[in-house]
Write a structure and sequence with these properties.
The protein is an alpha/beta fold. Helices cover 31% and strands 14% of the residues. The chain has 18 helices and 21 strands. Helix 1 (2-11) runs antiparallel to helix 11 (346-355), helix 6 (127-139) packs parallel to helix 16 and helix 10 packs across helix 11 (346-355). The longest helix has 22 residues, at 527-548. The radius of gyration is 25 Å and the shape is globular. It binds NADP nicotinamide-adenine-dinucleotide phosphate. Residues 165-167, 254, 260, 292-298, 300, 316-318, 419, 467-470, 583, 585 line the site of NADP nicotinamide-adenine-dinucleotide phosphate. The site of NADP nicotinamide-adenine-dinucleotide phosphate has 23 residues, from helix 9.
Length: 619
């Protein structure tokens, strides 16, 4: 289907998408539109002379398709009428006009001395901090990125466990203005992702602004000067301070390991570590491994290491919903890579194909229907029930007729209530191996040579891996952030972190968060998309400060509170809040959710175009 859209650009002839060869449906991470192989072959056969003619004509493009035709091409790929209100977001993402919609081009509007006085400290050099650096550089604003790790990449620097890969399609999980065409797999593995961020950093010369191996420990706002003093622990263990007009926190949200407190953990005699602190020197070949936790991390580790270990014991407290992604481990064929590189707009339409079904416009399967009987905790609506049946059907297919295993892996909460795993069957098949045990009996204690469950069974282990997730509710932690009038952010927040649009906080002027509270994506999307929204908003905020002659800006408390009320009301209607879900990193100790976004992506994009001056106090 993508090739047909590219042919429209190449030939100027819309009949390519108006004929008999068309996709039959669109499903997340299915790229052929369910066209039968003969039809696909026929399209390629018809395309070849058109491509050759395009080449022989000097690759001259005919006039660009009209907006109506572009919309028709979207409908063609989506196999439905793409709603008008999400068109602007899709067009920006696709950049058919060759324009980076987020490009900052106001540097010349502002006198150099004003810009030079506006030093910005960016905390973190993962995908969001690097993006902030690129935009600040375009704005001609001086900046320093402080990164605690020894290189860029954030989560992709830290999570080096076997099997680590992204679960958002790689052709979408990259900056809209840096659409890498080289991905080896549709869902890239950690080394390739980390390299992408290294390459982007070098390409934009951001490394010159980075201080690696340095950690921000504190920052304090001075109301007299309207500036932040940022305290940094330097690589040699010393202390440095930086002065900043504004601070952008780009510290991520899922990076403080959540190590469980299990009796006897310290007495285990072999190697043991959290998944995000994987020790590459520990050889698990021929060893008995205990894997505690089977969320998005554990379910990637298990099938990767199981063939090499002597025995793998997986301790799963709560079963996880899994849904099919046939391309999860698939390599991108050379033909597709060639097409992305050489055929006009092929890559952009492929991005659309990856993005559109994940754009979160339809969250109905996650919405609680108040009239639905959810007392058994199995579903929250008819649609959610159908989703449950569909997930279960696929899970059964993967494990055959092992009823005992099916009972063990069937979640006791509604579908999509926690982060749903997507798989090509590798996880479920791994569980059927003779040398793998999935244990749902709770852990009682850890002993020198293994794990003991509450039924008294001793599970011998040479290595223990804690794939037990992250402290999601501790945003910007452990930095000590002191704002206006001495208020301390960690005390203001407790375990109820909140920010206006997930970005700004009353009482903390000129502090901007990327991937802040209430912005983690649960149903589709890509965090890089969200980061592009947030940095656009932040840069417009800086523009307002620098052009308006203001020293500081912060959101009005009532605007912030109204937003929180709307956010809360929306989240309370979503399945993630359902009381049947007792363990979830989305929830805080009180079972309340302050971490994730319930908003469709296009709404968030609209709201983050620029700060509304009516929402802010400027000083
Ligand atoms: P997670 O989803 O929080 O899963 C942690 C696992 O450890 C769960 O099975 C949890 O059980 C278990 N656990 C936690 N504390 C425990 C305790 N005290 N005793 C026994 N078991 C315990 O963490 P994660 O797997 O690291 O994933 C976190 C998030 O990172 C994901 O939601 C996703 O957003 C992201 N992630 C993404 C990818 C990807 O893109 N491919 C890969 C990895 C992670 P319960 O379920 O009962 O709490």
């Amino acid at each position: 289907p993508t090739l047909l859209c590219s042919l429209v650009h190449m030939t100027g002839d819309p009949s390519w998408i108006r004929g008999e060869h068309r996709p039959q449906g669109l499903f997340l991470n299915e790229y052929q539109g369910f066209m039968d192989p003969d039809a696909q072959a026929e399209v390629r056969r018809l395309a070849l002379p058109a491509i050759a003619a395009f080449r022989d004509g000097g690759c001259e493009l005919p006039p660009e398709p009209s907006p109506e035709l572009v919309h028709e091409m979207m409908n063609f790929l989506a196999c439905e009428e793409v709603p008008d209100d999400i068109l602007p977001m899709l067009l920006e993402e696709m950049e058919l006009d060759g324009r980076d919609a987020g490009q900052v081009d106001w540097a010349d509007e502002i006198p150099a001395e004003v810009r030079e006085d506006a030093h910005v400290v960016v905390v973190g050099c993962g995908e969001s901090g690097l993006l902030a650096g690129i935009r600040l550089q375009q704005a001609g604003v001086p900046f320093t990125i402080i990164e605690k790790n020894d290189g860029p990449g954030g989560t992709w620097w830290e999570n080096r466990y076997p099997g680590a890969r992204v679960d958002v399609g790689s052709h979408f999980y990259c900056y809209s203005f840096e659409p890498a065409d080289h991905w080896t797999e549709y869902f890239s593995q950690q080394p390739e992702l980390q390299q992408y961020f290294v390459d982007v950093m070098h390409k934009y010369g951001i490394d010159e602004h980075c201080r690696f191996g340095a950690e921000v420990t504190a920052m304090t706002w001075d109301d007299d000067t309207s500036r932040w003093t940022v305290t940094v622990r330097t690589p040699d263990g010393g202390t440095d301070t930086l002065d900043a007009r504004a601070v952008i926190s780009a510290v991520g949200a899922l990076n403080i390991p959540n190590l469980p407190t299990i009796e006897g953990m310290d007495h285990f005699e072999g190697p043991s570590f959290h998944s995000a602190r994987w020790d590459p020197d520990v050889d698990y070949t021929g060893k008995r491994v205990a894997l505690v936790g089977a969320g998005a991390t554990g379910f990637q580790i298990a099938p990767t290491i199981a063939p090499a270990t002597e025995h793998l014991s997986i301790f799963q407290r709560t079963a996880q919903w899994v849904f099919p992604n046939p391309n999860y481990h698939e390599r991108v064929g050379e033909g597709k890579k060639w097409a992305i590189r050489h055929l006009p707009f092929y890559g952009r339409w492929f991005r659309f194909l990856t993005f559109y079904p994940a754009s979160g416009t339809d969250l109905s399967m996650a919405r609680i229907d108040p009239d639905f009987d959810d007392s058994d905790g199995l579903a929250v609506s008819e649609r959610n029930l159908a989703t449950r049946d569909w997930f279960l059907g696929w899970m059964k297919e993967q494990i055959g007729d092992d009823e005992e295993l099916l009972a063990t892996i069937t979640p006791d909460y509604p579908a999509t209530g926690k982060r749903t795993l997507q798989d090509n069957g590798s996880w479920l098949r791994c569980l059927t191996r003779d040398d793998v045990d999935l244990i749902r009996t709770p852990i009682d204690r850890i002993v020198a040579d293994g794990v003991v469950t509450t039924d008294g069974t001793h599970h011998p282990a040479d290595i223990v891996v804690y794939a037990t997730g992250f402290q999601h509710n501790r945003f910007l932690w452990p930095m000590e952030i002191t704002g206006r009038d001495g208020r301390v952010l960690s005390e203001v927040w407790g375990d109820e972190p909140a920010a206006y649009l997930g970005i700004t906080v009353p009482g903390f002027p000129n502090l901007f968060c990327m991937y802040g509270p209430g912005t983690n994506l649960v149903s589709g999307g890509s965090l890089i998309f969200h980061s592009e929204c947030q940095i656009a908003y932040i840069m417009e905020g800086l523009h307002q400060l620098l052009t308006g002659g203001h020293r500081a800006m912060e959101p009005k408390p009532e605007v912030h509170d109204d937003y929180q009320a709307r956010l809360r009301a929306e989240i309370d209607q979503m399945v993630w809040s359902h009381p049947s879900i007792t363990h979830s990193h989305y929830k805080n100790a009180d079972g309340k959710i302050h971490t994730v976004s319930p908003w469709p992506l296009h709404r968030y994009r609209e709201w983050t175009k620029a700060p509304d001056p009516a929402d802010y106090v400027y000083r």
